[in-house]
Automatic annotation (TrEMBL):
It comes from the Eukaryota. SUPFAM superfamilies: Ubiquitin-like. This is Predicted protein. InterPro entries: DUF4116, Ubiquitin-like_dom, Ubiquitin-like_domsf. Residues 208-285 form the Ubiquitin-like domain. It holds the Pfam family DUF4116. It comes from Naegleria gruberi (Amoeba).
Length: 285
């Protein structure tokens, strides 16, 4: 049983800790031996009040699994990360569904378990909160649902990039995206390039037309923003031809290196006149 003197010391120590937290620029819980305040709820709340989502990184696992505290920490924090949400909560379907519906928290879908990113109800909740959540949706039914994807691209045309494979060349969806923003032209399905109405949007966008040939004679044609990274082009090739990452692209007789992946097409001087060839990389090459 604590003596009155011990209680008083603990009280003043806690006041000092709360004061330090209030004036701190980084999330932390001061150590004042022999007292340990890492399991003190009031202290945890003080860190959250001061640092919002960043607080989760240093809080005890008990608090990272506390539904109320976690929601308080990341609500309306556009920079919050789901990485530090406790393991118990991350496996709680109801919590995840509630989490992705909070303003700005749709982005946390990316940090959730793959099972939840495939869960139709959770994905719908995130998408209804913000259509940009489509970047992290793995539910193929939704991604290939014509009516639902039409709704998404009508709100934000650039999200045409993420619609399901079966809808890549759907005229109605592509046209809706282009009418929302001509910038969606870089993600238009290859089959639709000959469509007169759709191709007319190319003049409204600053996209450049790229043609990539394979040594087997295949040719891939698509449009890209000059500010796109070269890695995005590699991703497009891998997706369209359904191949892995074991390939290289030759640009005007030069093999593009891995260091080039993060450079923009403009930096690499890649344009509509560039000769691009895809070759498979030799093992060790």
């Amino acid at each position: 049983m604590k003596t009155s003197q011990q209680v008083l010391k603990h009280h003043y120590a806690k006041l000092m800790v709360l004061n330090q937290i209030k004036h701190s620029n980084v999330p932390f819980i001061p150590s004042l031996k022999p007292f340990d305040f890492s399991l003190d709820r009031e202290v945890a709340l003080a860190v959250i009040k001061q640092h919002k989502g960043k607080a989760l990184k240093i809080l005890h696992e008990n608090w990272r699994n506390d539904r109320e505290l976690v929601l308080k920490a990341i609500s309306n924090d556009a920079f919050a990360s789901g990485e530090y949400v406790g393991k118990v909560l991350r496996r709680d379907r109801n919590f995840v569904k509630e989490l992705v519906q909070v303003k700005n928290n749709w982005v946390l879908l990316k940090d959730m378990d793959e099972d939840f990113r495939q869960d139709e109800e959770i994905c719908r909740a995130a998408l209804d909160c913000n259509p940009r959540a489509i970047k992290y949706v793995l539910n193929q039914y939704l991604l290939n649902n014509r009516e639902y994807m039409l709704k998404i691209v009508s709100q934000c045309g650039i999200l045409l990039e993420y619609v399901g494979y079966s809808l890549k060349n759907n005229r109605e969806i592509n046209l809706a995206a282009l009418k929302q923003t001509p910038k969606a032209f870089q993600f238009v399905g290859n089959v639709l390039f000959k469509d007169e109405e759709i191709s007319s949007f190319s003049t409204l966008d600053n996209s450049i037309e790229l043609r990539i040939k394979s040594i087997s004679g295949k040719e891939l044609r698509f449009f890209a923003d000059p500010n796109n990274t070269f890695n995005m082009i590699r991703w497009r090739v891998a997706e369209e031809w359904n191949i892995g990452n074991e390939f290289r692209i030759i640009h005007n007789s030069k093999v593009m290196s891995m260091e080039d992946d993060e450079k923009t097409l403009q930096e690499l001087e890649i344009n509509s006149n560039s000769k691009l060839v895809m070759v498979f990389r030799l093992v060790g090459g």
